[in-house]
Amino acid sequence: MSGNTRAAYLLPYYLWIVLFVVAPVVLVFYYSLFDVDGHFTFSNYAQFLTPVYLSMTLSSFWFAFLITVFSLLVAYPAAYLLTRTKHKQLWLLLIILPTWINLLLKTYAFIGIFGTYGPVNAVLGMVGLGGQQILFTSSSFVFVSVYIFVPFMILPIFNALEGLNPSLLDAARDLGASKWTAFRRVVFPLTLSGVRSGCMAVFIPALSLFMITRLIAGNRVITLGTAIEQHFLVTQDWGMGSTVAVFLILAMGIIMVVTSGTKRRVRHGK
Amino acid sequence: MANKNRFGNMYLVIVFLVLYAPILYLMYYSFNSGGTMHKFEGFTLQYYKEVFADTRLIIIVINTLVIALLSSALATIIGIMGALAIHQMQNRRVKNTLLSLNNVLIVNPDVIIGASFLILFTMAGIKLGFYSVLLSHIAFSVPIAVIMILPRLQEMSPSLVDAARDLGASRLDVLTKVILPFIKPGIYAGFFMALTYSLDDFAVTFFVTGSGYSTLSVEIYSRARQGVSLSINALSTLIFLFTVLLVVGYYFIMRKANRNGKKEPAAEMGVPR
């Protein structure tokens, strides 16, 4: 009896899983097997394995890697310093607040800031470097992406640092470790889980960005996300778009398995 | 030591400055009579008037709010069911599978969600527009609601439910009088997170809007591609103020909910996208 009532009121949730989690992924795999004219074929996969697509995949990963590394470099010290402030919850809230503002608006702001007559160029002019083309370069793309993702990196690291037992640090200091050694040997290893989830929260979306590339990089950077958007909405070649999506899903799956594997090991080690 | 502290504070100040600079920059130039995002010529409210006179834009804002409120309400309801389903699951393996399936849409890149939903709606014969956008916003908000509600459910002592059952409460009574009140903070948190995700979403909506229907992000994207227009700045200033109100409201609700709990509100606010 209880099984039946349970099934009845939980039905919408299971329906959601089937319709919006399982079905879309299956459909993407299915569509990747058809060409533009609707013929069953493996040509999309053959095409993906040509240098054009492989180098695009490589550069997509490279940019995602750069964005993740720079975000980490900015976020770790910031998170560390945040845990030392008074009213740290308030400061953390202020770090998170910008993430609640529409992504598009923040990206749009950089069109003005990096523009030919924007403040960055004005400063460069004053220093004597003269006007530079900042917008529509890959470095402005990386900068804006890091700007967007930094809070998502700060948050898990902050939480990991907060969860750290302070007596461990005292112990390290008592045993004669310098501040730097204590950080390197105690604090950093123990907050690796936060670093890892921060990197995940940055790396995967960074692989699939497409609006920032369009608005800031002016099509100079082509990521897997841009390629998917292009195939689906511009050239209407859903088969090829799905094939790119399949590779992105596979890449993500691998990343997830690798990271969850290490997590499990850590848990067992405890 | 003091020196080091000063250095650290300076670093934080710089981080905050950079984080807020673009937002303040947008707001500042929304008052520029010069019509550009450089060279401030004079103060004007012209662009705010433009925003309020632009019926198309106002309809889009209303669309966005309707979608956000409806989708997060429905997603929260489904999310409650999902959290209950996962919580009640006895078999560990099935439970973990269910949890992984739940999280697929959180870790999946927006582009893939958008593209796969586009295929789904086209195959199902759903016309792109209001319903496709609503359905996809519900779809990607459900796992967020589940994630926010589940921890509350797990904190709940099972003896509470047993006691209610012993005292003669029916299944429905247990749900409405014991479980739901207990997980209320989680429900609010899930609703607010879903709301902000829906308001913020661009990539998924961009794929499933079709031609006649638009939400704010999609509209801003197409306007921004045409170049700078200060009515976007005026609009963003208004949105910023609205967002701050929303966050403050959320903050106080969470603080009230957590007054007895150990967790601080901000620590729960960020679910990585």
From TrEMBL, chain A:
A single Gene Ontology biological process assigned to it is: transmembrane transport
Which keywords are on file for this protein?
Cell membrane, Membrane, Transmembrane, Transmembrane helix, Transport
Membrane topology is: Multi-pass membrane protein
Keyword Membrane recorded: yes
Q: Name one GO cellular component term.
A: plasma membrane
Protein's cellular compartments: Cell membrane
Q: Where are the transmembrane segments?
A: 12-33, 53-78, 90-114, 134-158, 198-218, 238-258
- The organism's place on the tree of life at top rank: Bacteria
Q: Which family does it belong to?
A: Belongs to the binding-protein-dependent transport system permease family. CysTW subfamily.
What is the name attached to this protein's record?
Spermidine/putrescine ABC transporter permease
Could you read off the lineage of the organism from its UniProt record?
Bacteria, Bacillati, Bacillota, Bacilli, Bacillales
Automatic annotation (TrEMBL), chain B:
**What Gene Ontology biological process does one annotation of this record name?**
transmembrane transport
Can the keyword Transmembrane be found in this entry's annotation?
A: yes
Which residues are in the ABC transmembrane type-1 domain? 61-250
Asked whether the keyword Membrane is assigned, the reply is yes
Q: Origin, by domain of life?
A: Bacteria
Q: Name one GO cellular component term.
A: plasma membrane
| CDD domains noted in UniProt | TM_PBP2
Q: Which InterPro entries match?
A: Bact_Polyamine_Transport (IPR051789), MetI-like (IPR000515), MetI-like_sf (IPR035906)
Q: Which residues cross the membrane?
A: 12-31, 57-86, 98-122, 128-150, 228-253
Keyword entries, A-Z: Cell membrane, Membrane, Transmembrane, Transmembrane helix, Transport
Q: What is its membrane topology? A: Multi-pass membrane protein
Q: Where in the cell is it found?
A: Cell membrane
The record ties this protein, via PANTHER family, to: PUTRESCINE TRANSPORT SYSTEM PERMEASE PROTEIN POTI (PTHR43848)
Instruction: Indicate the family of this protein.
Output: Belongs to the binding-protein-dependent transport system permease family. CysTW subfamily.
* Name the UniProt record assigns to this protein: Spermidine/putrescine ABC transporter permease PotC
Q: Which organism is it from?
A: Paenibacillus kribbensis
